[in-house]
């Protein structure tokens, strides 16, 4: 470690001062002594003095290299010069002049090094501010804050909504945007070359504050177990519908390209890691990565991904908790409503589930997903559910040529007709089924229902025709084979009936095996409740 070298401090009058370094040995870095040498202002003496100072080291050749050494050198050098001057018969003015000269020389050496040290490599952080309609916003204020709160900087967006910052490479920063009472959520980035982000202004309060993680979930996913007893509610049809809806919920996640590390936030990278882990069959890593993404960036997308992952792996109560918290921050997200409705249905809260799905349909009437979810739960629910028929009627009006819209609306009408029989309702449903098969000849379920209605009217021959068309549209409709066998038996065609019954039995066996295989593949999360480290829970 280098300390400052010697300095020549030459007076104008009767004396000159030289500082000579003496060391006790090679390792005596902190044992260095600075000994002042004085001579009368005589050229011959000054020359002799210079010749007898072989260890003189000029400051320009031996600069201070670290800050605390510079402070030590400055303090010690001035102290020794001042002490030596006290022992020499200088006048006050001359002594003060010499001290000032010493101070300036030491400062020039010690602080010159700091000025010459290279600055850290800079990179550009750039991005765009948009509104909820993805239109660029001009004159928005963008703030960038590093680890030190005092380091916050602001920039205004240009006419294209663009902004830029120059920052130290590798640093961690938080970006926010605001304008006219609208705020973006906080976005954390790690500065690398070419970082580009998009900040979206939304809501009347900062979205970053909407999902404060002080309100942490009261559970931890501790492991996975093989599917044994799902703890589902109701019939096997309800259980299968619940599992199918969980998969459908996962499918609602936004399809995005994988970040390549350039311009990606830390939350993006965790979300991508989660997707990769899920595809690799590592559900435990996946759910933890989804959680970390949501902690870093409390976006609607991250919370939906986390909640749907919990739902897929049968952590039903925990999925409700996450979707419920996300709903508080994003009350206008149709898919958050849909995810929460699915989780509620899985817990046999059928009416509440229906209301959430109806709200999702109201938020985005053009989106088919909430209607399809409503149609499926409406079919298997024990009784008619509130608002389901109303929303499915809306779906059929909005999309009159959609076979599924007409089919699900007809099924909702039949559900109500079961509670209060009305021939007019049956005719209305029958017309809707006929419209469905006219729109799509592959709508085997609608053909099946037309066959059931015909058989109920004792038109067996017509029922056979509809059942046959249902099987042609979808050969895996086990119920169509069974009902066709019943119709053949009624007509006295026992061999045909026997054949259809056998086909039905085989289809049921294959489908049961497929369901069991799927349940084994989708592991069930084992959950530890907060405050109960020894207690685990499976849903």
How would you summarize this macromolecular structure in one to three sentences?
With 539 residues, the chain is of the alpha+beta class.
Give an account of the 3D structure.
With 539 residues, the protein is of the alpha+beta class. Among the domains are: 8-116, no CATH class; 122-210, Immunoglobulin-like. It is built from 19 helices and 14 strands. The strands form four sheets. Strands 5, 6, 8, 9 and 10 form a five-stranded antiparallel sheet that branches. The longest helix has 28 residues, at 494-521. It starts with 7 loop residues before the first strand and ends with a strand.
Structure keywords:
3-stranded antiparallel β-sheet, Immunoglobulin-like, single chain, 539 residues
